[in-house]
Amino acid sequence: xxxxxxxxxxxxxxxxxxxxxxxxxxxxxxxxxxxxxxxxxxxxxxxxxxxxxxxxxxxxxxxxxxxxxxxxxxxxxxxxxxxxxxxxxxxxxxxxxxxxxxxxxxxxxxxxxxxxxxxxxxxxxxxxxxxxxxxxxxxxxxxxxxxxxxxxxxxxxxxxxxxxxxxxxxxxxxxxxxxxxxxxxxxxxxxxxxxxxxxxxxxxxxxxxxxxxxxxxxxxxxxxxxxxxxxxxxxxxxxxxxxxxxxxxxxxxxxxxxxxxxxxxxxxxxxxxxxxxxxxxxxxxxxxxxxxxx
Length: 294
Fold this sequence. Notes:
Layout: H1 2-13, H2 16-23, H3 27-41, E1 46-49, E2 52-55, H4 57-77, E3 91-95, H5 98-103, H6 105-115, E4 120-124, H7 131-136, E5 142-145, E6 155-162, E7 164-168, H8 179-184, E8 186-190, H9 202-205, E9 211-216, H10 222-228, E10 232-237, H11 238-246, E11 251-253, E12 262-268, H12 276-293
Parallel strand pairs: 3-4, 3-5, 8-9, 8-10
Antiparallel strand pairs: 1-2, 5-12, 6-12, 7-10, 7-11
Helix pairs in contact: 1-2, 1-3, 1-4, 2-3, 6-12
């Protein structure tokens, strides 16, 4: 059973050091477990490619069975194991956009350091189509996002509702903008992956045509682009615009077209619905966002 736990951690982390950290083991202990697994199954199981350990075809065949066993263990044998945030050294992994990191991550870190001082965070950005598998494999604990996550099999909870605002260079002279001016400018639009819709897709949905000069997967570069290019404009979630404005990076103006609310949610896999650490993290996220909204 201990070897299957090690195998499961290697499947998730694809790295011996990170798998050891996840299980609270030394790197040498994890390497020893991998050697025993290789001897038992007479297969390399994981092959180093660059900085990652890629599973062999035999390991990939084993993966679904091991994940099923580990899920049953978590569900049936460890159901009574309570997560203690004051003593835990767990590394929580979150999938979020650079917008989430900029606007909400500082508040989460502040809260986490107070209530779980020995826990750590790891963030990542994944294409929307990869999020389900990453949650199922335990590579991430929660995914934080909006409409770009569309998986009916995942549990979800609303955390926050965004409105939209537009941002322009600080040298832009007007504080308000009419629709004609808005549509005459060159636009920056964020698309998080090839298969996602634009964050500001509602503009086209209104039947309006605009000149999209730049499509980018990143929010955080927009202020630097606007600073050097005052003829450009971007429409982003209002809280992000306010964050940029606090750093004197841009000017926030009202978007002169009707904009819908953007629902920010946290998503998790059914495998971890009853896992005590995941439950605690979800509750913490909700508390942090509830205070943010108040």
